[in-house]
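Limitations

Structures in this collection are predictions, not experimental determinations, and the ligand pose is part of the prediction. Treat each record accordingly. The example that follows, with manganese (II) ion as the small molecule, is included so readers can see exactly what is and is not provided: the inputs are given verbatim, and the output is the predicted complex.
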Amino acid sequence: MLVVMKSHATPEQIEAVCAHIRDLGLRPHPLPGAQRTAIGITGNQGEVDRGNLESLPGVAEVIRVSKAYKLASRDVKEEDTVIGFPGTDAAIGGGNLAVVAGPCSIENREQAFAIAEAVAAAGAQFFRGGAYKPRTSPYAFQGLGLDALKIMAGIRERFGLRIVTEALDNESLELAAEWADVIQIGARNMQNFSLLRQAGRLRKPVLIKRGMSATLDELLMAAEYVMSEGNYQVVLCERGVRTFSDHARNTLDLSIVPALKRVSHLPILIDPSHGTGRRDSVLPMARAAVACGADGVMVEVHHRPEIALSDGPQSIYPEQFAAMMNDLEQIAPVVGRRLPRSARAAATAS
Ligand code: PEP
Ligand code: MN
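Predicted complex:
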């Protein structure tokens, strides 16, 4: 159910409706929009009695939301969600493209700082780096854990980049939330419902990667788990799905971008690195991602990919990243967007 408030409803009227919903044993989710506030209701098993709600002061109408995902749906919030980062001009969603770049894994301080310096100089606003790695083999490099989080905190300090890192379980979630700016839930954990709920109790943006065989509805239901706990700062990420194609690691499903934009207000990033698994495919698919309306890209960058401890073959060189930024800057205006680049990057851009 969704309570749509009148455009001139006062904050007191909105709070009174929320209190009424809580009295019914349900959970209100006030979602302010440009025109009016809508209040999503969750926790009900069947129909909510709309009679009393409709007669409360400031209420315009009460609507039944028929989709399985509610808070993630455009029915509940028409405007695109824009996630800001206080104290910076970085954002995910809206007119500015978000670019997240960095190595698959943090391997040591020198490696991480060298890559961070290069991506910051090219204009990235977000740095990615794995501290806790979900590896297919238990014998493969598993990440530096807390040491990696501390290295990335140093990178934020030095280069002003916002930090994106993956949490694998409840323990790493707590640590990542303490040290990073955006918590990534990986493809393998997209349906780890207890982890999603736990992430929903944070007040930090959560980036959810699409599971390798997840449908659009399943991806949005993962977002719904986080939002149902009161955390509305959710970013979706397409990173390729499993198909019969064997020319690439995964099949990057760019058609999910317009499909998601139709039904959801949440921002969507594209990861052409895991989406293709090949360095030479990253640039063309990053260009295509922006062209088809994605809110930005997340790419793996390594200055020495031949000795990377994970995902070297799909990691692009810093010079390739800089070239990609120049291309995205040119494509962005065609789709009504802008690529924001720091003053430092602008000075070094060709
Ligand atoms: C990653 O971003 O490094 C990663 C492991 O991604 P995914 O969960 O999409 O495989
Ligand atoms: Mn990786």
